[in-house]
Amino acid sequence: MSKDVSIDVGGTFTDFVAYDRETRNLSVWKTLSTPHDPGEGIVRGLEDAGPAGEIEHLRFGTTIATNAVLERKGATVAYIATKGFRDVPFIQRGKRQSHYDITWIKSKPLMKRRHAFEVAGRITSRGEEYIPLDEAGVRKVAERIAADPRIEAIAVCLLFSYVKPVHERRVKEIFAEICPNKPVSISYDVLPKWKEHERSSTTLADAYIKPLVSGHLENLNTRFAERGVNKRIAAIKSNGGEMSLEAAAEAPIQMTLSGPTGGVVGAKQIARLAGVDHLVTLDMGGTSTDVSTVVDGRESFTTSFEIEFGVPIQIPMIDIRTMGAGGGSLAWIDKGGMLRVGPESAGAAPGPACYGQGGKRATVTDANVILGRINPENFLGGQMALNVDAAEKAVTKVADEIGKSPQETALGIVQIANNNMIGALRSVLTERGLDPRDFTLLAFGGAGPVHISDLMPLTNIPSGIVPNYPGQFSAFGFTMTDARIDVERTAPMTSKAFRREHANDVMNDLVRESTQALADQGYTAAIEIHRSLEMRYFGQNHELEVSINFESFDDDTITSIWQSFHAAHKARYNFDIPGETIELISIKVTAISATERIALPELPPASGNPEPIAQRPVVFDDGEHNAAIYNRTQLLAGHHLAGPALIEEPASITVIRPGQDVRVDTYGNLLLGEIAAR
Amino acid sequence: MDMVTMNIIDSAMVAICREMGVNVQKTAYSTIFSEAEDFTCALANPEGEMISVAEFCPAQIGGVPLLVRSMVKEIPEIEPGDVIIHNDPYRGGLHTPEHTMFKPIFVSDELMGFAVSIGHFVEVGGMVPGGFPGEATEIFHEGLRVPPVKLVKRGVDVPEVWKLLLSNVRTPRGNYGDLRALISAVDMGEKRMVELIEKYGKDVFRQTVSDLMDYSESRMRAEISSFADGRYTFEDCLEDDGIEAKEYWIRVAVNVQGDEVVIDYTGSSPQAKGPINATLGVAWSASYNAMLHLTDQTIPKNSGCFRPIRVISPAGTVMNVNYPGSEVGGNTETHPLIVACIFGAMSECAPHRVMASEGTTHGCFVFGGYDEENDEPFGAFDFTYVGYGGREFADGNDATDSINGNCANTPTEVFETRYPWIVEEYALRQDSGGAGEHRGGLSISKTMLCTGDVMISQMTNKHLRTSWGLKGGKRAIPGATLYQAKSANDWQTIKEAFGKVSSSKYSNVPIAPDERVSVKAPGGGGFGDPAKRDKAAIVEDVLEGYVSREKAMEDYGFEESWISKYAPDDSVEAAE
């Protein structure tokens, strides 16, 4: 027996998915999370996974790094900057969060100004040493920090280190000698990319969480060893790849946004199995919704994330947009009488009014209950009876204020919630030049399947998919991660003055560094290398990423990159500027070592039509319909059905609009709309 | 009113404006809009009312109605696929560098409105590279004036206009890119709006937009009603105009009458010879900006918000310049000073919704030269961040762009890669904020060593004047621009070193390799009596180095023993 086990540690629940490589059996369960000691919940849940020795590959995603930065519970960090620049993290980029908010208070960085130190030494933008590093000055600072018991970690960000890291590396050596017990993060290792505020902020965040995260990982490792889990153990990164625990302890910043990545990795797999090129994911939970895309079978990446306004972390991460809208979002009337939904949420306590836990205000879930879309008797598989009266009372209160009937109001609440979601979907599709008509919507999370059918026509997305276990889809995704390293370096040069040798040196360095890092973690299987360039017209300030498929810059390949850039610009912004000078900004390399793919279990084929378990009145946009209710566990491969219908399962309900087609595929995914007819 | 459809159409239009903005930002060349976001994307109805806008540059939104109206008046035949360009400050524009594009939105042959994009071009011709001639005395000195003309006609470029525009600027390659960026935004806005209007139908759309503006109007009226009726006055001045060493006063009377407000600038100084005059568009925009800060920020931003606000701005004054007066600094220096004056006036009836004076300048340090590596001229604009004023409930923010902009800096690593300077210091200025129960914010200082030949110009203020405090809060310290000759030890003002009238407003000063320039911005004023400041906050200011020990003793009576009492963990630093 050998198993893959994946664990997704969330705020309330820890989800487990285990896959048996021989029987191809997939099992799913959850335990309550233990925020005071996350390892406890993990170990307790693992007891249900069978003998520990059978676990070949254990992967886990955790929000411990995320929470440490968001809740500001990290270490006391000392910051080392170039002379004249210790205030960069305080000045930030000079912007306000919003224009007209007189109450706004500018965020502080993750360290105190009294712990910020400067050292003399200067590298120019062209990589020349203009002022040598003042080593005596560095030693003095190191001695002072070594003597200060409050300082737990050190972040170093020197100007132009991305061009030449010699000064930063020397600072690290001196600290290792004088102050060996405090971890040092240097900006070249964390983010060798220009723009000093973003680089220093990211480096500070790495140092800030390092003591805490390494402690947590050590604790976990010990517990795993005690239980006999002794094969491959990996942590999930923000880029959706995995890394060894040692690598995670070295660069904890890479874990900060790993939470929602599982859903996107899982989506990639579903896209492959369903033969779909482009997917957009909608992970809708109680308080927030995450959206992301898979284009041509690949997830989209970004490096822009802010802990708070003005405090960025620029690590490579799957581009997931989060918005504060979920089943628990509250409906309210603003000062001018307009109906609004969210971002305030009823949360887990008191929760929506229909939970009967004291919530008095109407939420999206309450509206769905009024509309008959959520079955009050079969919520969470019948574990929780919903209070329809409470939902009605809450919605009626809103209805009275805007002079509509409770049913019209419930429909309005759902429509506005849907509209908020359309905004999020638009931000990852049309705002990036992607046509929704080429996409399939993959909905999961408890509330995603409730809204998918409405959202498809509203966003012009013709097809939809509701996967198995929509409530635990993220943990499911973790069973399919590869080891993945994304590295990049800024190397600005223009098409007029292209420095070929430098470009080749940087690209070769990146390939060497990333393959070596994979090998150091024990990932040696079939390493794939992807290369890309960030370019722009010379004078623009934002880059477009263009993939390349060559290994070195020569006359032909250099000509080809300029052509590719013109074409990419035209495709993205509807215009190009032929003959214009182009600037190369960064070279990026991704190294991937694929892990063994799991083969998903298949359902037996259906004969005939599925039998509804009941009929119930449900309100849709065009009025009330008598909808057929199906039990998802009774559906078989090849079953067809059409809306108005509800498909119920323990963790969710899929709502099907009148006239919409549904087909069940071989693996049990629900296919909606155009794809159902294929 | 259908409150559900209204919510949906309003948020759809804001999303469209944002999407237009993303296009501008990603494709523009001038760092002032690609990095600093000094641009705006909006939608207007055929009558020129602004129906939606996304949050980019706050200085520009009040200008949209005037701009659209003057364009419609002068272009009688607007056809589908046209794009009209306009920058004329004497036809509703805010200042010469700001270029506006309009694209009509036609749905089945009927004009339903306009997609509008506005962006600040760094280089516009005129007497200095970078568009801010501190010594201009006529609009013609400031750059090329472009009345409303079609740049694209029925979807096809009008080559004559392009040629004319690009022949009159120093950096035609960059300006071409900026023009394309603004056009790509209105193209996108028009396309999305047609989809939206077709989806809801013209009648529902028109009705909803009209309801939406009524809605914003009613919310604004409710906010104004919450202020006590009365006549609230205030005044402050620009220290000089770059031409004559004398002060120019802005005098405001805010008359709150029930749910309306009349903002009256009668009594302000006659217009200046130098480029500090506000155009009528700036007077409106600044008044609206102040009112949007004073009221609930969640009110949807459209022309409805402005209906209960009347502005009286007599012609021939610094508050409404007559042709052909110069005006480029009116939009950068005078605008925030106007907002500060309105805050000062309203501090009497709404102290919780205002702040003491911020630095009220963007520094507007511009320079140009020749890029040898790429064999072409360059022009650049560099922001300097001020301190914000203290508030009834909090200290002023440090190092923030003045209130009529919301622009990001150019990082030093980008700055040095592009331009012939080495930045030696980019820091908060200790003691620059005014003392108070809530301290004024700190401004920044940027010191640069020149490594090539550049020509600098500047349009700033408060080298002599300072930001005032409120309710007993103290004044901040002034800004400065200092010059150091090669191998010299001492620093001089630009006025001393180059014989200029003003140290804060000047044109075309040549800087050679190994010379230094240091630009220091003014801090923000304090709020409330310094004696009431929380001692723990004073100790924290000292430990963090925001306030020096000497200044803390002088302003707050700081005593060394406070440290062990209020920050026992930090006695280590205190001992050093």
Which keywords apply here?
heterodimer, A: 678 residues, alpha+beta, Nucleotidyltransferase, domain 5, 9-stranded mixed beta sheet, 6-stranded mixed beta sheet, globular, B: 576 residues, 7-stranded antiparallel beta sheet
Folded structure, characterized:
The complex is a heterodimer of chains A (678) and B (576). By secondary structure, chain A is α+β, with helices and mostly antiparallel strands. Chain A folds into six domains: 3-68 and 215-258, ATPase, nucleotide binding domain (Nucleotidyltransferase, domain 5), CATH 3.30.420.40; 72-213; 259-325 and 417-478, Nucleotidyltransferase, domain 5 (2-Layer Sandwich), CATH 3.30.420.40; 329-414, no CATH class; 483-593, Dna Ligase, domain 1, CATH 3.30.1490; 614-677, no CATH class. In chain A, strands 13, 14, 15, 20, 23, 24, 31, 34 and 35 form a nine-stranded mixed beta sheet that branches. In chain A, strands 3-2-1-4-11-12 form a six-stranded mixed beta sheet. In chain A, strand 7 (122-123) and strand 8 (129-131) form a beta hairpin. In chain A, helix 4 (135-147) packs across helix 5 (166-178). With 576 residues, chain B is α+β, with helices and mostly antiparallel strands. Chain B has 16 helices and 20 strands. In chain B, the strands form four sheets. Chain B has a seven-stranded antiparallel beta sheet, sandwiched between helices. In chain B, strands 14-15-20-17-18 form a five-stranded antiparallel beta sheet. In chain B, a hairpin with a 2-residue loop joins strand 9 (248-257) and strand 10 (260-264). The model of chain B has no long low-confidence stretch (mean pLDDT 93). Classes of the chains: A alpha+beta (678), B alpha+beta (576). The interface between A and B is large, with 73 and 90 residues.
